[in-house]
Amino acid sequence: MNLKKIVLSMSIVTLVSCSGDEDGYTDISNENSDTTENPTFTGSLTVLQNVFGDNIDPNNLDNYANQVVPNYVTKDNTGGNTITDAKATLGRVLFYDKNLSVDNTIGCASCHQQAFAFGDSNDVSTGVNGVTGRHSMRLINTRFARETRFFWDERANTLEEQTTQPIQDHAEMGFSGQNGDPALSDLLIKLEALDYYQELFQFAYGNTTITEARLQESMAQFIRSIQSFDAKYDVGRSVVQNDNQQFPNFTAQENEGKDLFFRPPNENGAGCITCHAAPEFDIDPMSLNNGVIGIFADATATDLTVTRAPTLRDVFNSSGVINGALMHDASMASATDAIEHYNDIDATGNTNLDNRLRGGPGGNGQNLNLTTAEIQALEAFIKTLSGTSVYTDTKWSDPFIN
Prior knowledge:
Number of strands: 8
Oligomer: single chain
C-alpha cells in the first residue's frame, strides 16, 4: 500500500458537528424537521429511470451526508441545513437542470463545471441574455469556509440566499420578474409540471410542494457536499504535527513554497496565510479588497467592492493545469501573475484595500521582494492543494447524462 493510501486512512474522520458559535459557526447536529434523514422512496422508478437512467437510484443514494473529512479540518458553516442524501440528490438535479433558465439553455452547472473545480474556464460565463459581470467563482469546500457570505462582493448573507439569485438575474438565467422577464413564481410552476420533480420533492420532503426555500435548501446541501481533501497537501499534513514541519512527501521546492506561504513578510515570507488560513485555505471574513479593482472588458472602470475570494484549493486541476483565469475580473491568467500582484501592490486610489496589503506605515502598498525562484516555489505549493476525486466522482456529475 502506498503512502497516500496509508496516511489518508489514518487521518480521516466523519465530521458530525462543530459545537458552539465561535467565529460564527454553529452546532450542525440538529436534524431538519421537514423530513426524516433517510426517507423511503414510494414513487415511480420508471419516471426517474426514464430521465436519469442509472445515475439516480433512490433506494441506493450516493453518500452526501457522511463523507469523510480530515480531522484537522474543523470549520463547518452548515448551520441548521444539515445535509441529507435525499435533499442533496434533489439539489444535484436542480444544479444541473437547464429548465431553471427561461429558455432551457443554462443551468447552475453551465457556469460551475465539475471539470474546472466547479468554476468556469471562460473569463466570464454566458447566460440567457448576455454574460456575467464577473468571473464565476469555484465552488470547492464551501461548507468549510470561514466566510459564510457569498458572491465576490458578499451581497448574499448565506449560501442558501446565493443559490437562487443567479436564477433571478436577467442576464444569467432570466427569471428576474422585471422588464418582461417571468418571475421566480413562474419557475416554480414550470418545475411542478415536471414529473421527476414530483417524485423527487415527494421523496425528499414528504410532499410535492415546490418553494424557493426548498430550492435554496436542497441546492445548498448539494454545493456544500462538494469537497476536496485528497490533495498532496492532505497526504503530507496527515503525517506531521502541524503545518510548520517539513512535509515528507513534498519536494524541496514545495516545502520552500509552503514555508514562504506561512511565514510573515517581516520574516522574509509572503504572509499568504494571514488571509488564506490553513487547512481550508479560504478567505478571512474580515478581508477587504486585495488590490484588484478592474471590471471585465472596461479598462477605465474600477470596482472596490470585491472583498471575497474562493478557497485556494483546486486553483489547478490534478494534472497541474489552471482551472481558468484568476480574480473576479479574470485579469490574471496564471498563478504567477497573481503572486506577482501580491509581490508589488500599488495602493494608489484604493480606499478599500486591506490593511495587511498596505505595506506598513507608509501605506503605499505591499512589496515583498520575492525572487523568481520564490514565486515559482509558492506556485508549486499551491499546486499541492489540488485533489483528484472532485473532478471524477459521479455523485457530483450531471445526472441527466445517460
